[in-house]
Design brief:
Order of helices and strands: HEEHHHHHHHHH
Strand content: under 5%
Mean pLDDT: 81
Number of strands: 2
Radius of gyration: 48 Å
Strand order of the largest sheet: 1-2
Helix content: over 70%
Low-confidence stretches: 133-139, 417-435, 438-444
Shape: rod-shaped
Length: 444
């Protein structure tokens, strides 16, 4: 064998050894990548995500159920206030409706007293009356019967306004009174006030024109319209305002009752779903009882494991990428193709980079979710601890940042001294040239 043939055979053997070493390295890198992806994705799918989802579901469902129960209680209080307002206004309406009959009896009693003293003109006789709502009594001041009748008319109309005020005052004093109910009560007060003043004036005018106006109530129903058109109009305005308020209160009461029932049903449904989520979380923890640290500790350690595996994989891939660049003349994609290291202008590059970003994204996202939850890093007593949080947050942050940096360097193809040394250890000597690896047929 000539010296030139011997040198060529040595070069080919060196190239074949480099190719075989790089092929073995790529197989190891691919195996590492597959293991990392299986561990990261499998751990997230089987343990981490169900744990995070069920914890969030239990807290969210419990909070939603409590909010629904609070809303149901608020609606019940509003419904109770509406019922009280309806009862008070209904009582005020009864006072207004029964007023003419009570006023007739009171005036008849006064006239009867005056007739006993002055048979010819009982209204000029002086009688002793009280100024209270109880009407005439044996005692009090002595006034003519006509003056006593005027005072009785004033007390009678005042009782209507007082009944409305008595109904409205405790309601308007409540700070939690619904705005719609407050507006309704205020509007009813505003409508009845002028009407009672008009009724008082109309009754006094009727008495001045015809002192025995009250006698017509003895033969027909006691209605204000029989006294005068003005009195009938004022009484109608009072009754219309109270009737309108009662109709609106009935509608509000029905609406509040339906809403309360709906929120009670919603709270019951949310409580049942919370019970189911808590049961599933307990079953998940029981299923992982074989783990030495338990499911909760395993989830807390997951970002550290995912970040460490991501850094290891990125480092190995950058070394392999540096070697493939130095072996570019040998066309490494021909004898050692890779589904993780794809050239800048080759199809599937972004899919490969996205696949490599999975462990980094899993570590960073899970770490962010855990750090945002104060109930994760607690002491054995169940209290949140800043020391425990910092003990996990620092390595989370370091591994997350390093993983992002390494992935970015891998994506942009940056090389460092370590990768260049790794590449130089497998590159054939420059003086020997760089022939392509021999195929099986060539070796034969």
């Amino acid at each position: 064998m000539s010296p030139a043939t011997r040198v060529s055979a040595q070069q080919q053997a060196a190239v074949d050894r480099v190719a075989a070493a790089h092929s073995a390295e790529m197989r190891a890198v691919h195996a590492l990548g597959a293991v990392v992806l299986l561990v990261v994705v499998g751990g997230y799918t089987l343990a981490v995500r169900p744990w995070l989802h069920l914890r969030a579901a239990t807290r969210g469902l419990e909070a939603a159920a409590a909010a629904a129960e609070r809303e149901a209680l608020r609606l019940e209080r509003d419904h109770e206030a509406t019922r009280e307002a309806a009862e008070a206004l209904a009582a005020a309406r009864r006072v207004a409706t029964m007023g003419p009959d009570r006023l007739r009896r009171e005036i008849a009693h006064l006239v009867e007293q005056g007739r006993a003293l002055e048979p010819d003109d009982p209204y000029k006789a002086a009688v002793r009356v009280t100024a209270g709502p109880a009407g005439p009594a044996a005692g009090g001041e002595t006034v003519p019967v006509e003056e006593a009748v005027r005072k009785a008319i004033g007390r009678h109309v005042e009782q209507i306004g007082l009944a409305v005020e008595t109904a409205a005052a405790p309601l308007l004093a409540r700070p939690d009174l619904p705005a719609a109910l407050r507006a309704l009560v205020t509007e009813t007060q505003a409508a009845i006030g002028p009407a009672t003043v008009a009724l008082h004036e109309a009754m006094l005018q009727a008495f001045a024109r015809y002192p025995d106006f009250w006698r017509q109530w003895e033969q027909e129903p006691a209605l204000y319209a029989g006294v005068s058109p003005e009195a009938g109009d004022a009484a109608r305005r009072i009754d219309d305002a109270l009737a309108r308020a009662l109709r609106q209160l009935a509608a509000m009461s029905a609406t509040l009752q339906n809403q309360t029932r709906a929120y009670r049903d919603r709270a019951g449904d949310l409580r049942e779903r919370h019970r189911q989520a808590a049961h599933r979380l307990a079953a998940l923890r029981a299923g992982s009882a074989w783990m030495p640290l338990g499911l909760d500790d395993g989830v807390r350690l997951y970002p550290l494991l995912a970040g460490a595996l991501a850094l290891t994989l990125y480092y190995r891939l950058r070394r392999a990428l540096a070697v493939r660049r130095d072996l570019a003349d040998l066309e490494p994609d021909r004898f050692a193709p890779s589904w993780l290291l794809v050239g800048p202008r080759m199809p599937g590059r972004w899919w490969a980079l996205a696949l490599l970003a999975v462990p980094m994204a899993a570590a960073v996202s899970v770490a962010a979710v855990l750090l945002a939850d104060r109930s994760v890093f607690v002491t054995p007593a169940g209290e949140w601890s800043p020391v425990v949080t910092a003990g996990y947050a620092i390595p989370y942050t370091v591994l997350g940042l390093l993983s992002i940096v390494e992935w970015a360097r891998l994506a942009t193809g940056q090389r460092d001294a370590t990768a260049r040394r790794a590449a130089g250890s497998v590159h054939p000597p420059a003086e020997q040239g760089s022939p392509r690896p021999a195929t099986a047929s060539e070796r034969r």
